[in-house]
Please model this.
Amino acid sequence: MKSTTIPLAVAGARLTRREWLKGTGLLFGTLALSSTLAALAPSRAWALELKRLDTHQGEVLLALTKRIFPHATLDDAVYALVVKDLDGKVAADASLQAQLAAGVQKLDGLGQGDWAKRSTADQDRDVAALAGAPFFETVRSTAVVALYSNPLAYAHFGYGANAGDGGYLLTGFNALAWLPDPPAQDSGPVPAN
Model:
């Protein structure tokens, strides 16, 4: 394979494509046709550039996030936002980058070289064994925010987010048919737009 040279912004320095890509990664995929997101997105294809994590680390972290917070119909594009946040965090903290690299390496050891290709049952057992470890907690605590507080997840789950002052109350999510209506004096004020 021929090595191409890409100019670097430093005076006179040149890197090969392989050298330029070392230490960076790319995650990519397609949205499912039946996905809510496919109707909103301009294209079914998505890609995420990683600045510090490599592609394999990104794939393993994406698979780990899917096992920690499994949603059968949630597209990988939403899970990729967790990897993006982790990539941003390691850019500012070398010890965190080492922690994630060691965690991915440990998972790969369990998966004969590529944990992301391990069966979901085996992955679930591995995740249960990791629970509480610093690596697990870093991924879990980042994922709980990155996964559930973004417009893509809102669209998937049908959450209206902060749609005005009334929020979800005025967009049909206050229909609790399984609970009796509380007395008016116990209800508190209902926000108005």
